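Supplementary material to the annual report.
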Amino acid sequence: MSKVNRFDVITIFPDYLAPLKLSLIGKAAEAGLIEIGVHDLRAQTTDVHGSVDDTPYGGGAGMVMSPEPWGKAIDLVAELSDAPVHELIVLTPAGEKLTQKIAEELTKSRHLIFACGRYEGIDARVTAYYQSQPNFKVREVSIGDYVLGGGEVATLVIMEAIIRLIPGVIGNPLSLEEESHSLEDENSTLVEYPTYTKPAQWRGLNVPEVLLSGNHGAIAAFRREQSQIRTTKLTRNPEK
Ligand code: JFE
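Predicted assembly:
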């Protein structure tokens, strides 16, 4: 029951989102499974220089993105979807950390709007304002504990994680089925087992013989054991 059908991205670097035309995401858009818009924030500026930033109140280093162009851009792209609720994703290193569970939740939303900040981020009133609007949901999302230069790469990561979950986007629903069970809850589950393909011998390394045996019980047991070994190495909690 995946509902997502429209994604809009707002950025001062639309070209940074060019990879959306490629591969899995590009094909999903071409096939009409989803619609994607990328919008230049500067189109919503009023001064001759197209200013999108200003100095921070209270002082400090760097610049902060002004609220006015953001408000105009978000209101404008909201009108591109007739969804009753628009989900505004604001990328920030201070947000909730992206997980498979969050990606799955985001597939339930018909319209996702990604706000890609730059500099030291966006004036805090933008999230406050949309949080107060009944036709918006706001989520501040991080893709991990490191600081990027802006939200564009984080948006690519999140969109890829969502779009591959949409039925029809990968031709193989079974591979997603297995995955969703193994990733349901990050800390109590096993990581993926190692995978192999032909040839059976490569540079002196053999594919484990059990995988050639046709013994499905033994193969399942082998894979579970390999997953447990990998999980322990990552110091995640192996499944009890
Ligand atoms: C922006 C920046 C200094 C932000 C307090 C907009 N996971 C993740 N890492 N980095 C981001 C996301 C991210 C997202 C959006 C961003 C970084 N920056 C840079 C610099 C302090 C910041 O926030 C601007």
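The mean pLDDT is 93.
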